[in-house]
Please model this.
Amino acid sequence: MLRVDSVLLRRRPRKSRKTGIRPSPVVYFLWMGKGIATCRARRMRVYLGLGSNVGDRERHLATALDALRGLAGVRLCRVSPCYETEPLGEVGQAAFLNLAAEIETEMAPLELLRAVKGIERRLGRRETRRWGPREVDIDLILCGDAVVETDVLTVPHKAFRKRAFVLAPLADIAPDAVDPVTGRTVAELARSPDAEGRVEKRGVIALTP
Ligand code: A4P
Ligand code: MG
Model:
């Protein structure tokens, strides 16, 4: 993604690719301004997966969505209906309520991860066992066409292609979104027999107006 700093750090070129002559400082300054405006306008569309299986699950999800809406630089665009889902991972834990949300943001994926982890903590999520019960879990599923592989973040989410609890709600709001790694759409992935786990559609979560 083109970043503001990458525009600012560019040197005035010796000659323009279009005209073949060196742009004057004034022309170059105007070009940089246009570049910065474009960068600012480059908002990324992100799909999040939310889940809860402790306490008042609907309330936890609604509060998490409200908190997302309240993040500076985030626009909450669409929210899927929620699904009652069979827990994958640790056996014997309560059923989950899962949903998917579409947001637009200028935050970089790592910055967004920090912000959603902050929301999880504010909602009272204590340190939980991996794949164990939790008040709310917010995962970054797709961040535009970004592919991120670091110690703390993998995008697209490493397991989403095999999880009906992620794909079913995601297909309700973004069937045509494309997984940049496999090139397959969310609708195709959701129809695939690889998508594991029973899911049952429930209602739409009411958000505070
Ligand atoms: N992390 C890496 N990539 C991501 C990403 N794309 N989004 C890191 C969010 N986090 C990401 O996550 C552990 C670490 O993963 C984070 O600190 C972050 O740096 P966590 O939320 O603290 O722990 P976790 O959720 O238990 O682990 P993990 O591996 O993220 O599990 P999942 O994939 O979130 O699965 N069954 C049903 N039916 N519904 C569910 O919602 N959720 C899980 C958890 C298991 N079974 C489920 C459900
Ligand atoms: Mg998680």
